[in-house]
Write a structure and sequence with these properties.
heterodimer, A: mainly alpha, B: alpha+beta, Penicillin-binding protein 2a (Domain 2), Beta-lactamase, 2 domains, 6-stranded mixed beta sheet, 22 helices, 20 strands
């Protein structure tokens, strides 16, 4: 049994450490932040949501281990299938999804009655797809411009399906894909060109939305950006969330108020998801807030190490893309809490309460660990059997 | 694949963003204190301290409007325990159904998250002070309830309802318009309560308390050093003589109409009666919701202020204005004698007159109210050869009347005013298809036809004549505590008629009272006082003629100018003139001379409303 565990649970030790730290932070802060909600809705069972999160994390770690043991070849092979499946789910959600907090992001699985966000699947699927296309088009000394067309086509489909209901996720997808193409040596000319096209598209849509009522959330975006840009002196009803979040962080001070001593959890809306970082900063002070931020930086650092060591392109692009996605999502969440970005609803990966988010974050971690495991194996196999090149991924490339 | 330059670039960018975040975190958590202070706002709450409204005195410093305490019953839903509901109902003076309704309302608001179960919210409004005294002794039996003191108006006299107006809770529109108001505040809705709302309302105070996370009170903030006391509203003195007002209302009982009495030397309104009226106490507090609909649906419209809002044809009282403008236009020689043959005849027109001595000059034609002579005078004004057309003549005619404040809102500080109506030539062009002349509109000359005036406007005309040519904008305010009254009330408005022309007209007005047979207002004679007046009998489409009278007294140095309109009461000499004379006598002498007691009695007992109701019934039966 122990042997099996040893064989299964492999991969970068630092990344495992990051996962453990984030999971512990998640349980502590979710317990603190959901106390009142649990008291209200669960009849006094204050640990209801923490147990639920613990279950999600447990299931997530199991998934993570399974995924990390899947060979990257299979992942690459099924990437297109996954992508089209997620596109289908997104389309269904957009036209018949469950409306939660005025944004239609949720899909109910028929029969089981579980709701989840298909945009989480789509986020992973598109990154896997982009990594695969880039890997297929890597040739020494030549720009990978052949990858540009298929990538832009599929990223555009996914982003268009997501953006009307969840602008920030669409933004993350587009940005991470762009950075991956940048690293995947797609020529700058094409990247800048498409950047200009996206900017024009966004500008036109938003202008149109302010006159024609086809984007229900356009007003929310406009308000949030307006609040963000307006002078910070006046606090209005509209800036309530970010003001309360800043109060939480400020009153945390250097040392924090201590675990479970948050006051602001009673004033911040959704303290257990969108603003969980503010609760961490309030209870654990500057040190706690720094530690969480540092965890994500370590994750990125270790991903870079994996990328450098990997001599196969697909796992490298995959790990890099997923790492980038997780870290940017985390930064977006933290940036909202500390008031660097306008208010938006990105969960803090692995920390915020929410089963869909936790599970798919774990899938991403699993794939990163898998890529790392592959490089580790290579380090070992290089000694033992020099190189088994015919097994290599490149054989699949055309 | 190894790392290339582009990978390094991205990593550096992300590390930079991380550093920015750490910097911002450090600023917020360690350096910048501003958000630490704003955290306090979550733990403190501002409670409003209501200000008492200013008191209102009459011109003789009698207290007219005061304040009285009422008590709102507040509820903290979480603290309520089962209690003796029968006892509670008895203490509040409500039935069980009403109590159930109140609780249903609380539950509804809790479900809608409008109120918190931890925090006090309003349960029952405006319990009277008497009931509150008894309730307080028993309040310990009802945990979760407490009372909050509010002040409402207390009226010392059952009079002057239209002048004072009323106070009630502000509505959404008012809150929108004036940021001072919060839901549940009181404000003056009509009358002087509305006009001088800003002075009367005072300044709300604030008390800051510390609250816990559920909003429960935990003591005062910083020992109450931040608190501000409420500042009571300013006291007003109004120009009304409340005794005269009460007398006027008494004498107008069972009649429909209005009295306006002014002090000519200042424009101050001494009395303004609109009948039927109501007791202002009916619209205080809890009674308001019951009484208001009753008053609003009364067929005699007691809520309508007829003194400023009803327009009537002025009838023959208008003749004094015709005489004045004819003198100014030099189309009338005061000494010229005119022969009246019982009616005014012109091609296709006959205006009948009343019996009087013949022939008449200006003075006696005013005293006798000769229609024929004034038809002549009107035609001379309109068809004056100076002007090219009757249109121009009519414009001139209108210009004179405007200078007396007719056809326009008087601009007083009364809550609602209407402008009356003065027709112009466009109006007649439209009606008569551009073909009309002085004969077509002849009835204007005797105050009939299209011209409409309000009692306030005609009282102002009387005041202008009393002043021999000028008036002050009528006003109800005499003094505001610590504030000077608006300048617009200190400006003399001169009429377009030279003051020399007033004497023959005033002479005529005096003769209408002192003259012999044919003089119209001999009933208005007051021993020892020279009254000048003019009767009017205003024909109208609503039935019997309105009885009208304008007057001022004494003739030299006038102290009071008055207009009386009594709807459907017949001729001016029969009702309006005796009523006006009684008001003048009451004001100047403070009592009615024994030789005139019969006049007073007759006016008090006169019930015109009943007569009208009877005749209407008769019509219906037929």
């Amino acid at each position: 049994m122990k042997e099996l565990l040893n064989r299964m649970v492999k991969g970068d030790a630092y990344i495992w450490l990051v996962i453990v730290v984030l999971a512990v932070a998640s349980l502590l802060s979710v317990y603190s932040a959901t106390g009142f909600l649990a008291y209200q809705r669960q009849g006094g069972n204050t640990s209801h949501y923490m147990f639920w999160q613990m279950l999600s994390l447990g299931l997530g770690v199991a998934i993570m281990i399974v995924v990390s043991n899947i060979s990257s070849r299979y992942i690459a092979r099924f990437s297109v299938l996954f992508l089209y499946l997620s596109v289908l789910l997104l389309a269904i959600t957009l036209f018949s999804g469950v409306n939660l907090n005025t944004a239609t992001r949720w899909l109910t699985i028929p029969g089981i009655g579980i709701t989840f966000q298909p945009s989480e699947i789509a986020k992973l699927a598109i990154i896997v797809y982009v990594a695969r296309v880039l890997a297929q088009n890597q040739q020494e000394g030549v720009a990978a411009d052949a990858a540009f067309k298929p990538i832009v086509f599929h990223v555009a489909i996914v982003a268009l399906l997501i953006f009307s209901e969840n602008l920030s996720t669409a933004f993350l997808v587009v940005m991470v894909s762009a950075v991956m193409m940048f690293i995947g040596r797609v020529s700058l000319k094409l990247l800048f060109g498409s950047g200009v096209v996206v900017a024009i598209f966004l500008g036109l849509t938003l202008t149109l939305a302010s006159h024609v009522d086809f984007l229900p959330r356009a007003q929310t975006w406009a308000n949030r950006v307006e609040v963000f840009l307006s002078s910070e002196e006046q606090s209005t009803a509209a800036s309530y969330q970010s003001d309360q979040s800043k109060i939480a962080i400020a009153t945390g001070g250097i040392l924090g108020k201590g675990p479970g001593n948050s006051v602001q959890r009673n004033f911040i809306p959704h303290p257990y998801s969108d603003f969980i970082y503010a609760i961490i900063a309030e209870e654990y002070g500057f040190g706690g807030a720094f530690l969480i931020l540092f965890c994500y930086l370590i994750l990125l650092g270790r991903v870079s190490v994996i990328v450098r060591k990997s001599d196969r392109t697909f796992p490298a692009f995959l790990a890099y893309g997923l790492g980038l996605m997780l870290v940017s999502q985390a930064f977006l969440n933290m940036g909202v809490a500390i008031g660097v970005f306008p208010v938006t609803g990105q969960p803090l990966p692995l920390v915020s309460l929410g089963t869909t988010s936790v599970l798919f974050t774990c899938v991403a971690f699993g794939m990163i660990l898998g890529a790392g495991r592959a490089t580790l194996k290579e380090e070992v196999s290089e000694d033992v059997e020099s190189s088994g090149n015919e097994e290599y991924y490149e054989s699949e490339e055309k | 694949m190894g790392s290339n330059n582009r990978t390094i670039l991205i990593v550096i960018a992300i590390i930079l963003v991380g550093l920015i975040f750490i910097g911002k975190l450090f600023m917020l958590q360690v350096v910048d204190p501003s958000y630490k202070f704003s955290a306090e706002s979550n733990t403190q709450r501002k409670l409003t301290e209501f200000a008492a409204r200013g008191l209102i005195y009459d011109r003789n410093k009698n207290l007219v409007v005061a304040n009285q305490a009422t008590y709102d019953i507040m509820i903290v839903p979480r603290e309520v325990t089962p209690f003796d509901s029968t006892k509670f109902c008895n203490l509040l003076g409500i039935d069980k159904k009403h109590l159930d309704r109140l609780f249903a309302n609380v539950e509804y608001n809790i479900q809608r998250r409008r109120i918190s179960t931890f925090q006090p919210s309003l349960f029952f409004k405006q319990l009277s002070a008497e009931k509150h005294t008894i309730l307080q002794e028993h309040l310990y039996k009802f945990p979760g309830f407490f009372t909050r003191r509010r002040t409402v108006r207390k009226y010392e006299y059952p009079n002057a309802a239209h002048i004072l107006g009323y106070v009630t809770e502000v509505n959404d529109a008012m809150i929108e318009r004036d940021s001072y108001y919060r839901a549940g505040d009181y404000a003056g809705i009509s009358g002087i309560e509305n006009t001088y709302e800003k002075e009367l309302r005072g300044e709300k105070g604030a008390r800051y308390i510390l609250v816990d996370v559920h909003g429960r009170e935990k003591g005062s903030l910083r020992g109450g050093r931040m608190d501000s006391a409420a500042i009571a509203g300013k006291d007003l003195t109004i120009s009304i003589d409340i005794d005269l007002q009460a007398y006027g209302e008494k004498i107008m009982q069972n009649k429909t109409g209005a009295i306006v009495a002014l002090e000519p030397s200042s424009g101050e309104i001494l009395s303004m009666v609109s009948s039927p009226t109501y007791d202002p106490s009916l619209l205080i507090g809890r009674n308001r919701s019951e009484n208001f609909p009753v008053l609003a649906h009364d067929t005699l419209s007691p809520l309508l202020n007829r003194a400023t809002m009803s327009s009537y044809p002025p009838g023959s009282t208008f003749k004094v204005l015709m005489a004045l403008m004819a003198l100014e236009e030099d189309v009338l020689d005061p000494s010229q004698r005119y022969s009246c043959i019982g009616a005014y005849y012109a091609p296709g027109v006959r205006v009948s007159c009343r019996p009087h001595y013949n022939p008449v000059n200006l003075v006696s034609s005013i005293a006798n109210s000769c229609n024929s002579h004034f038809c002549e005078i009107f035609r001379n004004v309109i068809d004056n050869p100076k002007y090219a057309s009757p249109s121009e003549g009519l414009s001139k005619w209108r210009e004179y009347l405007l200078s007396y404040g007719l056809g326009e809102r008087p601009g007083s500080d009364l809550f609602n005013e209407t402008s009356g109506f003065l027709p112009n030539s466009y109006y007649y062009d439209r009606i008569y298809n551009n073909v009309w002349g002085s004969l077509t509109v002849l009835s204007l000359g005797i105050g009939q036809g299209e011209v409409l005036t309000t009692p306030l406007q005609m009282a102002n005309v009387a005041a202008t004549i009393a002043n021999r040519g000028y008036y002050y904008t009528p006003r109800i305010i005499k003094d505001i505590e610590g504030v000077t009254i608006p300048d617009k009330f200190n400006i003399r408005h001169y009429s377009n008629v030279d003051s020399a022309h007033y004497e023959p007209v005033i002479e005529g007005m005096e003769q209408s009272i002192l003259g012999d047979f044919g003089s119209t207002a001999r009933i208005a004679q007051i021993p020892g006082i020279s009254v000048c007046g003019k009767t009017g009998t205003s024909q109208n489409p609503h039935g019997e003629n309105h009885s009208v009278f304008i007057a001022f007294a004494p003739k030299e140095d006038p102290e009071i100018a008055i207009a009386v309109f009594v709807e459907n009461a017949g001729s001016g000499s029969s009702v309006a003139a005796p009523i006006a004379s009684l008001i003048i006598e009451q004001y100047l002498n403070s009592e009615i001379h024994y030789t005139r007691r019969w006049v007073e009695e007759r006016m008090l007992n006169l019930n015109i409303n009943e007569k009208i109701a009877e005749s209407e019934n008769r019509v219906e039966q037929e």
